[in-house]
Each structure stands twice: as C-alpha cells, then as structure tokens.
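Researcher: Go.
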Amino acid sequence: MATAIRGCFGKIKTKDLAATGALAIVGGIQEWTLSEEAEDIDSSEIGTCTKASVAGANDRSLSISGFYAPADGNQGDLTVGNIVDVEIYPAGSGSGNEYFTTTTGGGTVLSIERGGSTDGLVSLSMSIKINGDLTTTSVP
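Model: Structure:
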C-alpha cells in the first residue's frame, strides 16, 4: 500500500531573484496548488477525419492561499510583478523528502488578493507563473 503525504507538513520557500542569501518560508499558507500543463498543438492531417495533437511548450503556475500575515516569514516580500525563486516541499523539508524548485528564471508574482470579514482572518491568495522548468530534488 502506498504511503499518503499529509499536506500539513508542506512548506513553500521564496526569495527575490535578485536578493542574496537563502530562501525563507512563506508564513500563513494553508493551501497551495501547482499546475503543470502542455500547450496543445493541432497536428491533424487532411483525409484522416480524426484530430491529432502534439504537446507544445510546458506551462506551470503556483496558486497559494492562506491568511494575510506580512510580518510572518517571507510573505511581505511577495509583491505583484516581483520575480522570485520558489521551492515547494509537499511533505516538508526533512531529509529524503522530495521538493520542487524553480530553475534560473524563478517565478513572476502575477496576482495577490486580500480580503476580510467580521468573523475570520484576513485572507490572502496569490498566483505565481513559473518561468521555465521545475527541478525535482530530494532533501539531503
């Protein structure tokens, strides 16, 4: 039987692409989604009457949501238009765990939304477009 990964152990780390130093944990995160898809290029031929396609360029994006806590971790450094290095640790950053990291292009913060209500925390959601590939690595 396969061992499931509990989401509560996950971590996301970022840093400004131009900054020096190590990546820092983004605080307040409660949920994340990494989407990867390939462009669909039509390669159908006349006379076959069936559609065919080939994969084009890959596209990756990261959606993050949680509560707004600008002084918590690296959350305050994420601003619209900023390019950041990103590391995603689905099972946490313990030795042997797999994680995803951006390559030299980092990711561009495309959107940030904040909201609040009288009976909850101020919410945060953001979208980061990954520039280039993601590398899958294991924590040493």
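Model: The CA atoms of residues 30 and 66 lie 5 Å apart.
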